[in-house]
User: Fold this.
Amino acid sequence: MSALGVTAPQGFSAAATGAGLKASGSPGIAVVVNEGPEFAAAAVFTRNKVFAAPVKVSRAAVAAGELKAVVFNSGNANACTGEQGLHDAQIMQQLTAEGVGAEPTQVAVCSTGIIGDLLPMEKVESGIAAVVTQLGDHGADAADAIRTTDTIAKEVLVKGDGWTVGGMGKGAGMMAPSLATMLVCLTTDAKVNAQALQTALERANSTTFNTLDIDGSTSTNDTVIAMASGASGVSPDQDELDAAVHEACAQLAGMMQSDAEGVTKRVSITVEGAADDEQALNAARTIGRDSLVKTAMFGSDPNWGRVLAAVGMADAEMDADNISVTFNGHTVCEYSTGAPGARDVDLSGADIAVVVDLGTGGEGRATVRTTDLSHAYVEINSAYTS
Amino acid sequence: MSALGVTAPQGFSAAATGAGLKASGSPGIAVVVNEGPEFAAAAVFTRNKVFAAPVKVSRAAVAAGELKAVVFNSGNANACTGEQGLHDAQIMQQLTAEGVGAEPTQVAVCSTGIIGDLLPMEKVESGIAAVVTQLGDHGADAADAIRTTDTIAKEVLVKGDGWTVGGMGKGAGMMAPSLATMLVCLTTDAKVNAQALQTALERANSTTFNTLDIDGSTSTNDTVIAMASGASGVSPDQDELDAAVHEACAQLAGMMQSDAEGVTKRVSITVEGAADDEQALNAARTIGRDSLVKTAMFGSDPNWGRVLAAVGMADAEMDADNISVTFNGHTVCEYSTGAPGARDVDLSGADIAVVVDLGTGGEGRATVRTTDLSHAYVEINSAYTS
Assistant:
């Protein structure tokens, strides 16, 4: 077993190979297989109305609560590819199913990369054919294979009492990732049913991937899948499962934030004093998506006025004369006006914590994690297809 | 009379002077005076819940439908400045009123610049004192004085039949300007009442400043004010007034788009085939605010997949399998999949027109004007206060 990643829990194997989909020549096809004895599965998907063929295929597959494998490709999102794209995703599902001894409906498909081009199916097919003969303790290879603009592979392991949760991920957000679609695969040898796993995944997602917002854009392909093999023989209760899945998701989300396209700062935006948590989340997202706030962060500029200008447009109740803001614990704004020394707060470090109180006296609270808006972000994203 | 700008129509004077508010040393105080014989006025303001003291003062002043003058300062927004800020805005109003022979309630106040610092009132007061003694045909000086990050002064003149509409503006948007707050002052010698002027201004605003969306951020200070002197003695009907005011606003909005911070491309996003105009506008705004679409435009990259990924998150009904997209008239996507030659469309010019059909068969249609997201945008906005 690996020390980390999807093959660290008992009952899972993986493999990856180059499929010629990525210019870099690094592997572009990966398969993660649940060897059982149980096959419970859960997933959350993009909320984008324009979603990719593999999302359609995977939604249907996971609906019955059981998966034996997930097949991944990087380099091409198979999104906006019409009937042919759907057919291609089904071929990926079918070939993987045949290769690992499963029904097609027990296989999910995840793709990431450029939108709008048809998959080079000859390469994909030969890649899958090769991968299914090499299954083993190769979680690290799989985590490497699914990277697109990710600079590092992302793997986790969280230990329970006699059971573990492993995982891998790529990309930079769930609700609002960069073009680098977010794909996550969690594996656990806990003995849990699909419903418990789905509950744990949704709870974890809401405060981890779902509040990671790099650039306000949302992929057509975002997918988080969890599979449980039951191979440990241990049945954690829901609280224990929730805690471990949350920890795995939080660690992966943190890695994505640190590795987001062009990031030089990790920025957390917490909104308090809102009428309710949903309004707090609206306000935190509005601030976290504001280009002027994000460029100020890139410049280490404690320009709190931009935070107020941004939050004033949020769909949230606020007392516009009683908003307060702290940067890294230093009060920079009270009663919606500047605090002494506000312009001198040092934001030169890599982590910036912004806390905004909307002044309603309410208990609503939420945190969104984002990044700065840097030259490198513009550079990476201005020349993606060309 | 000037050939252009706020003093081109009959019955208006203006002056501007340096007030030491801007590091560049260029003038930072301007006053535009309606000499009458009539004093009808209209205005639209920012929708930001966090709005600046001068907005509060001006809203109250214009409520009665009559203004004799507007005083402007650049370099400091007098926003998030609490009770002191409100007091300072009232002082500006009062000094200007005294200087031009008006009641304080007949004077509007417009400020633009950094948020959160108190105005240097000594400099502001001496600036106003100087300006009111220099009133004349100095619209061009006023247009220059209100600039912040604007690289050029922005003036217009639209001719009616025996009457004219002049105007000046600065900044980069209304609903969603860059930090450079949008301030606009229109003047006309038409003989029209405040209600007709307000109607014309609101109609023009909805399709000009209100659909100019540079970076999704919205200022605390945005203000568009119109004053009518009646000095021509000509009373245009509402249609004629609407047309002239619309033309003046459209020209100023076009100048703002071209001069937006860091712009290298002017991008228009038109959404058609929506259920109604409001949904079309939602969709156009969502695309126009998407960082990945905007960086692709900067890179002259015909990456239509990002347009689909962006529009899929819009609050608008769409047929996700029947979306079509054109770039500069070339079809790049039909039935939500790529069209032949889509990757080869040349977007290297300075103007890019994106047209998206949501495929609902509806008649809803809207256009939003935006720009690319460039290195220069990041540079300008990452070092604004420091």
The two ends of chain A are 41 Å apart (CA to CA). Confidence is low (pLDDT under 50) at residues 173-179 of chain A.
